[in-house]
């Protein structure tokens, strides 16, 4: 008896070639449903409609087609269990050797700007996942394919061995379960986003699921011995999955990590043109100015040594003067919301420089996830918007309006520096950045040493409170005039007293921004 294949696909890529090869080269009979049956029939391939095979018509507008014992009996029957074979014979059910199924285009549907909930619900496949799960469960006895890229390998198995190997069927079963799991996760994510458009602590529920679709296999991870892959998450393409790469080499794991760090900083600044340069996930220079050219120049000059090989993010389109400036040093990546044609031609002279266009620099993740042994840590994203009107001035000396604006700039940058974090700034430009030291005074000394004589008249931001007054005294000795910090230490009064004694102004935000 000829082998039986069930073909029912939404993505019809290469399905005609597969079906024709199955019939003409390997003597398969084919049953199919809906649009797939029509496609095969129009191509001149002999096919039996599922409704004809089961003797039951499609009902409910096509919602019920393959949910039938003659289909699922043929998929789930075990060839080495006598009772299963008896049941097949008694019910005139043929065993199915191949199931080729992929699912309704749910993701593509919800990606449309005008999609309604009713539209989305109609693209939730029921019969397809049921067949995929059944076929994947019974992989010792049949093969399941859910991706057109699997077709050639399947045909090669038949040509070499006459049938598929146990190992191949198991691999395909895994792909089937991954496909249905990802599909269900997309549906759950979409409905969750409708139910909870903004996350709060109450939305971090008992069960947390994460799923991703492969965007790109990367050359390696942080180091050459670590394999890595870039996955896109969520029901719609967002963030870096929507970026357009104008030129340059393929993005690496470290590029993407640094690009996201750069995006998070630049998203803090919307009122004026701003630029930031990232090295090893930390800003070595960040600046605001009247033009994007001046902002980049100032950010670069803040630490030109560290800027070499850096990642640049701009919150305004790349114009011609800025493009020329960008080509003067070696950079790994540049990202901006747009780039004019003349600027593109200039940047193209640096062929290896990765230039990306990301129109939406502001939209970031709603939560952060870190893996630990045996589990995940999930928290809502630190997307608090700084509001200096809510800050408390705790010293006798009050910051001037100009100092308050400078403190706000430094605070926004400090939020994205690894703890313990200290940022020194003047004229909306970072002069020194103290990163990730084991104590705050160590970070302060690094930032002040980097700022040098520029620290005189500058401001200082700290991501955490001061447990002692040593940071205040060190800052004052270098000429710092104003400090912003969260407050909350049992010994806050020591720092306030020292600031008063030394003539500094100090404000407390009431918000901490540790970043580990």
From TrEMBL:
Q: Name one Pfam family in it.
A: AICARFT_IMPCHas
Instruction: Please provide, alphabetically and separated by semicolons, the GO molecular function terms listed in this UniProt record.
Output: IMP cyclohydrolase activity; phosphoribosylaminoimidazolecarboxamide formyltransferase activity
Pathway involvement? Purine metabolism; IMP biosynthesis via de novo pathway; IMP from 5-formamido-1-(5-phospho-D-ribosyl)imidazole-4-carboxamide: step 1/1; Purine metabolism; IMP biosynthesis via de novo pathway; 5-formamido-1-(5-phospho-D-ribosyl)imidazole-4-carboxamide from 5-amino-1-(5-phospho-D-ribosyl)imidazole-4-carboxamide (10-formyl THF route): step 1/1
GO BP terms in the entry: 'de novo' IMP biosynthetic process
Q: Where is the MGS-like domain?
A: 1-146
CDD domains according to UniProt: IMPCH (cd01421)
Q: What is this protein called?
A: Bifunctional purine biosynthesis protein PurH
Originating species: Cylindrospermopsis raciborskii CENA303
Q: Which gene encodes it?
A: purH
């Amino acid at each position: 008896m000829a082998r039986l294949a069930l073909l029912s696909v939404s993505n019809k890529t290469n399905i005609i070639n597969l079906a024709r090869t199955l019939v003409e080269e390997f003597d398969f009979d084919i049953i199919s449903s809906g649009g797939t049956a029509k496609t095969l029939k129009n191509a001149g391939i002999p096919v039996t409609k599922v409704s004809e095979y089961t003797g039951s018509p499609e009902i409910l507008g096509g919602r019920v087609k393959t949910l039938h014992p003659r289909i699922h009996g043929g998929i789930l029957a075990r060839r080495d269990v006598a009772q299963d074979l008896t049941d097949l014979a008694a019910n005139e059910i043929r065993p199915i050797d191949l199931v080729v199924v992929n699912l309704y285009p749910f993701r593509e549907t919800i990606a449309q700007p005008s999609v309604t909930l009713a539209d989305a619900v109609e693209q939730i496949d029921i019969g397809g996942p049921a067949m995929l799960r059944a076929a994947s469960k019974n992989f010792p006895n049949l093969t399941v394919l859910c991706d057109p890229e699997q077709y050639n390998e399947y045909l090669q198995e038949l040509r070499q061995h006459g049938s598929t190997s146990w190992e191949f069927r198991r691999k395909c079963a895994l792909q089937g379960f991954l496909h249905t799991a990802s599909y269900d996760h997309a549906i759950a994510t979409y409905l969750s986003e409708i139910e909870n458009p903004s996350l709060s602590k109450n939305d971090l529920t008992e069960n947390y699921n994460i799923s991703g679709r492969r965007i790109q296999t990367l050359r390696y991870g942080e180091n050459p011995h670590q394999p890595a892959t870039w996955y896109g998450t969520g029901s719609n393409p967002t963030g870096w999955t929507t970026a357009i790469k104008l030129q340059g080499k393929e993005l690496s794991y470290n590029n993407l990590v640094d690009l996201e760090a750069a995006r998070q900083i630049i998203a803090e600044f919307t009122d004026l043109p701003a630029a930031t340069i990232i090295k090893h996930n930390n800003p070595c220079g960040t600046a605001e100015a009247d033009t994007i050219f001046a902002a980049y120049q100032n950010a670069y000059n803040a630490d030109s040594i560290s800027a070499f090989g850096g990642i640049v993010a701009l919150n305004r389109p790349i114009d011609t003067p800025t493009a020329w400036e960008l080509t003067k040093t070696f950079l790994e990546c540049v990202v901006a919301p747009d780039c004019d044609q003349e600027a593109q031609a200039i940047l193209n002279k640096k062929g290896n420089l990765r230039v990306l266009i990301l129109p939406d620099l502001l939209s970031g993740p709603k939560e952060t996830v870190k893996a630990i042994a045996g589990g995940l840590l999930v928290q809502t994203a630190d997307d608090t918007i700084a509001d200096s009107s809510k800050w408390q001035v705790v010293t006798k000396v009050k910051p001037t309006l100009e100092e308050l604006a400078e403190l706000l700039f430094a605070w926004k940058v400090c939020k994205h520096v690894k703890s313990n974090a200290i940022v020194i700034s003047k004229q909306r430009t970072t002069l020194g950045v103290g990163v990730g030291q084991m104590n705050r005074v160590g970070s302060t000394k690094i930032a002040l040493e980097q700022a040098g004589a520029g620290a005189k008249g500058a401001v200082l931001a700290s991501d955490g409170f001061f447990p002692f007054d040593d940071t205040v005294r060190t800052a004052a000795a270098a000429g710092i005039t104003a400090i912003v910090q969260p407050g909350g230490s049992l010994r806050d009064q020591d720092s306030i007293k020292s600031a008063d004694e030394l003539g500094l102004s100090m404000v407390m935000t009431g918000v901490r921004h540790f970043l580990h």
